[in-house]
């Protein structure tokens, strides 16, 4: 997965504005655009997932019941015996690996993701979170959704959320003080792009450095040998308030 930079879109300003402090908590967030073009490490991940979920890769070693168990896996992406379903899982895991380089998400399972009912529901949920924490500026002044729409074409995108186990969430560590978090992937198949949008609220009083990370300067667990979904790698203006895109309230 390749991080994308676009002239004319000030994602740095948007990401800076997503990091605020409120009386209740410190809020950290970021929006990251990625191309689905595979890099060297991604190719290894793709092969690993194909070996795990492609029935053809097991045709000579699995008995019929075991082969059927792979074919019958129903995921948020569709049946896992279908190449398109496996490719979507690959793209989302590859995005997580790129966004959290200290973590290895290769063991993440399809059930740790969820396909959201609509882009509009997710947009309104994120807006509610931003407004509830006093951050209307990023929506109304910086027009975050217009920028994201230019990058991904929201009306032609699917949205998936990542819901890891509490002890393997890259947005938290044991005793890290995270009160809430979300991880959304806006995925446009035609453009072969993903926007990763993540935010979290950290309890006031938890030590953070200037980058907004707790304690050791990253979002990862401190146990290098931890198993789980995302285990740590070893060694490692004026606004038109009626602006809408489809059924999304982006104002």
TrEMBL record:
<dbReference type="InterPro" id="IPR038564">
    <property type="entry name" value="Maf1_sf"/>
</dbReference>
<comment type="function">
    <text>Mediator of diverse signals that repress RNA polymerase III transcription. Inhibits the de novo assembly of TFIIIB onto DNA.</text>
</comment>
<keyword id="KW-0678">Repressor</keyword>
<dbReference type="Pfam" id="PF09174">
    <property type="entry name" value="Maf1"/>
</dbReference>
<dbReference type="InterPro" id="IPR015257">
    <property type="entry name" value="Maf1"/>
</dbReference>
<feature type="compositionally biased region" description="Acidic residues">
    <location>
        <begin position="208"/>
        <end position="227"/>
    </location>
</feature>
<comment type="similarity">
    <text>Belongs to the MAF1 family.</text>
</comment>
<keyword id="KW-0804">Transcription</keyword>
<protein>
    <recommendedName>
        <fullName>Repressor of RNA polymerase III transcription MAF1</fullName>
    </recommendedName>
</protein>
<keyword id="KW-0539">Nucleus</keyword>
<keyword id="KW-0805">Transcription regulation</keyword>
<feature type="region of interest" description="Disordered">
    <location>
        <begin position="208"/>
        <end position="251"/>
    </location>
</feature>
<feature type="compositionally biased region" description="Acidic residues">
    <location>
        <begin position="239"/>
        <end position="251"/>
    </location>
</feature>
């Amino acid at each position: 997965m390749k991080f994308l930079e676009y002239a004319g879109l000030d994602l740095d300003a948007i990401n800076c504005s997503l990091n605020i402090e409120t009386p209740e908590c410190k809020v950290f967030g970021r929006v990251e655009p990625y191309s689905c073009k595979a890099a060297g490490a991604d190719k290894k991940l793709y092969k690993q997932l194909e070996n795990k979920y492609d029935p053809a890769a097991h045709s000579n070693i699995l008995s019929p019941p075991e082969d059927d168990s792979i074919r019958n896996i129903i995921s948020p992406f569709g049946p896992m015996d279908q190449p398109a379903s496996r490719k979507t899982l690959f793209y989302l895991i590859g995005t997580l690996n790129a966004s959290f380089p200290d973590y290895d998400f290769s063991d993440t399972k399809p059930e740790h993701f969820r396909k959201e009912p609509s882009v509009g529901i997710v947009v309104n949920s994120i807006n509610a979170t931003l407004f509830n924490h006093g951050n209307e500026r990023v929506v109304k002044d910086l027009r975050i959704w217009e920028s994201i729409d230019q990058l991904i074409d929201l009306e032609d995108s699917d949205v998936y959320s990542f819901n890891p186990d509490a002890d393997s969430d890259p947005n938290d560590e044991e005793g890290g003080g995270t009160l809430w978090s979300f991880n959304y992937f806006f995925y446009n198949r035609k453009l072969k792009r993903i926007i990763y949008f993540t935010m979290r609220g950290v309890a006031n009083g938890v030590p953070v450095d200037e980058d907004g990370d707790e304690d050791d300067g990253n979002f990862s667990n401190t146990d290098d040998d931890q198993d789980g979904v995302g285990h740590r790698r070893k060694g490692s203006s004026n606004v038109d308030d009626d602006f809408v895109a489809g059924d999304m309230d982006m104002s």
